[in-house]
Amino acid sequence: MLLELKHSLEPRPSDEPACSQRYAALHRQAQWATRLFWLASGLVVGGVSALAVADALLG
Questions:
Q1: Per residue in 24-38, pLDDT tens?
Q2: DSSP letters of 19-58?
Q3: Confidence at 49, pLDDT banded by 50, 70, 90
Q4: Which of 16, 40, 42, 48 could form an SS bridge with 20, CB 3.0 to 4.6 Å?
C-alpha cells in the first residue's frame, strides 16, 4: 500500500495540453488566494472580538 502511494505521488509526464496545465495552475493559485483571504478575514474578526472581550472585561 505504501509503495502504491509513493508511485501515485511521483511526478509523471503529463499527456494534457499546455492550456489545460495553465488552467490547472491558475486554479491552484486561485484556491490558495481564497484560503489566504479567509484566513486573514478570520484573524481580523478574531482580533476584533478579542479586543471587544478585553474591553468589556477590563471595563
A1: 999 999 999 999 999
A2: HHHHHHHHHHHHHHHHHHHHHHHHHHHHHHHHHHHHHHHH
A3: very high
A4: 16
pLDDT at 56: 94
Residue identified by cell 489566504 is 36
Grid cell digits, residue 7:
508511485
Residue corresponding to grid cell 471587544: 52
Cell numbers 472581550: residue: 53
Cell of 55: 474591553
Dist CA 19 CA 12 (whole Å): 17
